[in-house]
Amino acid sequence: MGGHAEYTCRPEKKVAMKPANMTYEEAAAVPFAALVSLQFLRNKGGIQSGHKVLINGASGGLGTFAVQLAKYFGAEVTGLCSTTNLELVQSIGADRVIDYTKEDFTKEGQSYDIIFDAVGKSSFSKCKSSLSQNGIYLSTVATIPLLLQMLWTSMIGGKKAIFMIAPYRIADLIFLKELIEAGKVKSVIDRCYPLSETAEAHVYVEKGHAKGKVVITL
């Protein structure tokens, strides 16, 4: 977190074997984004087969993993993305895709058991009416209103707002490795940059239009 290097020291208990069916570039895209999506959906969202789940930012780094993981857990998945990414989100398993530049999902009368905002561009207040009676709103971006809503909804009402700092757990990484080798999850990579162009990679990512992950190659 915070740097890029050709080598790094890691304790043995913090690493797992690379999935046999992935390139190093594909494997590099997994640890952060897939772990966060897994822990939000499974550990905090309590995702179950039959749940209706909406992923905001479904074409991004976290979103592409979240769509696939939600499908693995048996959910009915709606992906929210821009026009240019509709086909991508459909191709990774979304049952339905909404173009947020043309439609407002909060006004269509649908309700969801989980709304996972993988890009931090919505709010609990806006999404509340689209949650089922005991629905959960998950956000990867902590704001003061969200933290206050977390406290309030933990004490009253069925609908919950949740943010967390996802822990790095090796068991989860091994779980993802097994899913990948079983063909249930794959990395979506927008582009790769050599280590010497790391700054350019950050500039591209920070524009907010990457499809899946951006990877630094060595």
Topology:
Blueprint: H1 24-28, H2 31-44, E1 52-56, H3 61-72, E2 76-81, H4 86-91, E3 96-99, E4 112-117, H5 124-127, E5 131-139, H6 144-155, E6 160-162, H7 170-181, E7 189-194, H8 198-205, E8 213-217
Parallel strand pairs: 1-2, 1-4, 2-3, 4-5, 5-6, 7-8
Helix pairs in contact: 2-3
Features:
218 residues, alpha/beta, Rossmann fold, two-stranded parallel sheet, 8 strands, globular
Condensed summary:
The chain has helices at 24-28, 31-44, 61-72, 86-91, 124-127, 144-155, 170-181, 198-205; strands spanning 52-56, 76-81, 96-99, 112-117, 131-139, 160-162, 189-194, 213-217.
Calculate Rg over CA atoms: 17 Å
Shape, per Cα inertia axes: globular
Q: End-to-end span in angstroms?
A: 18 Å
Tell me what the CATH architecture is: 3-Layer(aba) Sandwich
Predict the CATH topology.
Answer: Rossmann fold
Strand percentage: 15-25%
> If helices are DSSP runs of H or I spanning 4 or more residues, what is the number of helices?
8
The helix/strand series, from N terminus to C terminus, equals HHEHEHEEHEHEHEHE
| Strands in their spatial order, largest beta sheet | 3-2-1-4-5-6
Give the proportion of residues in helices.
25-40%
Q: Structural class, please?
A: alpha/beta
* Counted beta strands: 8
CATH class: Alpha Beta
Please describe the biggest sheet, giving its number of strands, its sense, and whether it closes into a barrel. 6 strands, parallel
Q: What's the mean pLDDT score?
A: 92
Poorly predicted residue ranges: none
In CATH, the homologous superfamily goes by the name: NAD(P)-binding Rossmann-like Domain
Q: How many domains is the backbone divided into?
A: 1
